[in-house]
Amino acid sequence: MRNVNEPSFRESVDLMFSRAVALMDLPPGLEEKIRVCNATYTVRFGVRLRGEIKTFTGYRSVHSEHMEPVKGGIRFSMGVNQDEVEALAALMTYKCALVEAPFGGSKGGLCIDPRQYDEHEMELITRRFAYELIKRDLIHPSQNVPAPDMGTGEREMAWIADQYARMNTTDINSRACVTGKPLNAGGIAGRVEATGRGVQYALQEFFRDPTDMKQAGLTGSLDGKRVIVQGLGNVGYHAAKFLSEEDGAKVIGIIEYDGGLYDANGLDVEAVRQWIGQHGGVTGYPDATYSKDGSPLLEAECDILVPAALEGVINLSNAARIQAPLIIEAANGPVTAGADEILRDKGTVIIPDMYANAGGVTVSYFEWVKNLSHIRFGRMQRRQEEARHQLVINELQQLENVMEGQWKMSPDFRQKYLRGAGELELVRSGLDDTMRIAYQSMREVWHSRDDVTDLRTAAYLVSIGKVAASYRAKGL
Ligand code: GLU
Q1: What global pTM score does this model have?
Q2: Which residues carry out catalysis (predicted)?
């Protein structure tokens, strides 16, 4: 249970912001200008459903317009409220700045339980919400570009894009009004997996550095590391899948809303995901130890804890008992400000949300650029690249002949080297590069300043510094 003395999500974000800003030398007033949310639009609209008019409440909050368009997901959940969207919009500002995605921060939400409505009803509701936002330029390719978040995905983004196109029939850039669309509606390869992939790249970068590993009391590589994931939604699933299938990590615990699964030898992530798809939850999954209350698993012994669902799951009530030496915040705001302090004192290393889950918005950025350039990445250069690689292969082939068995190309070199990069490879390469560079920027601050003892403060320092520089450049 969350402690009643704990600040709200937005206050928590503000507290973390203030902690960092106290270490900076900003011109008077600029701190306040950056911290506050510029505007939050609340919309209440009615949709005729099942013979009656049902009224819904939605929000779109714009935190900072130091760069435009502003960017951030739209969430469909019963937990949506103004405080939450404002906190999430603020995190988007810092996230975009940190990974150098040229956007201000925004977030939207609709207070709804999507499971209560069928597909046709969801389309009516989504289109109506989109209509309200589009007519106020709160969805617009150059003003405000939403994306998926909790409870939304490609399907909702396709409806929003179509709604925008219907209302702006001559806008050649209409597809850039929203990201996270399906591939056939102007989406980009690799967007669905992007946030989970970003979590993987973030951990890979962390494990490249022995000094950083040492801070968490860890050694070696990701191979064999015990991971507990909270929330096997889009982000948690992809992170767990990639870490276990590609990096050799062992996912020993999975926590879902209806319970937790544990297997010290490692769970089959794909099998659990399929079980959830068929049965609606983890209950009854046969190949693991099941417990009805999954939350104690957050406190179980492991190397890496990946909270990938709701905000505030690590709070004053459980922070002291968390055993993981390394937490990577795949969700937004999973650790409250109070818990953050307890964990910091314990020496737990936290890779903060604004960095750890920035893979989504990074690939959204690539999608937006693709939409504005009206061409798929790799379309121009792929075959040319392959032709040039063929030249090298031909030379090596000659060498192989001359060496007569004394030297040979490695078996899969030819095939791997010949393959020119398609859109998916380019997206992954751009994401990997982004995650590495952003990590290094935080890391440098973390290690070079005595007054910065954690990655979150370092992340805030880097991103606030960038936002402040933008404001200065605007003459503010
Ligand atoms: N909803 C995601 C986030 O919180 C993605 C935002 C985007 O792609 O614009 O970062």
Answers
A1: 0.96
A2: 107
